[in-house]
Amino acid sequence: MDILAVTNEQKGLLADLSRQTFVDTFASYNKPEDMQLFLDKQFTRDQLMAEPDEPDNYFFIAWEDGVPLGYMRLRFWQTQAYSCLPSVPTVEITRLYAIQAAIGKGVGKAMMQFALDFARSKTVKQVWLGVWEHNERAIRFYQKWGFERKGDHPFLLGTDSQTDWLMVKELGDLVKI
């Protein structure tokens, strides 16, 4: 498996992959009208295609035999993002998703290792992420990697105000899973 930076030519693919994996992950747990509103207003194809051009954002796609299996968005923060998080430079794992067919086949593991190595290359001491409080599979995955809940924040999905846990990992010792 290769994990490669997204090129300008791949922005459309990235946007489509982002929307597909989001729907696959969350549609069965949410009202269709909230999912549609989120996709139409907060997660549009055009918005997603513009994100790689934002400062301090890094996008990667996991590939195997020319097939995209997942993607991640990493963001470098030089200031504090939330009061419960450290006030030191950090890397946020903003998104880490695999396509349905790749779940359980090591794609998430490979992307997480890549993300932690990337964070170390930025010489940060902590990595953080937000995860929906009801996404138990993801929470278990992050806990295996040493992430600990430090707080939470609201996430608006359409008209539904949900809660994301904020989880932090110290980069003193990488956990190899």
UniProtKB/TrEMBL annotation:
This is GNAT family N-acetyltransferase. The keyword Transferase applies. Keywords: Acyltransferase, Transferase. InterPro entries: Acyl_CoA_acyltransferase (IPR016181), Bact_Acetyltransf (IPR050832), GNAT_dom (IPR000182). SUPFAM superfamilies: Acyl-CoA N-acyltransferases (Nat). PROSITE patterns: GNAT. Residues 1-172 form the N-acetyltransferase domain. It comes from the Bacteria. Pfam families: Acetyltransf_1. It comes from Flavihumibacter fluminis. The keyword Acyltransferase applies.
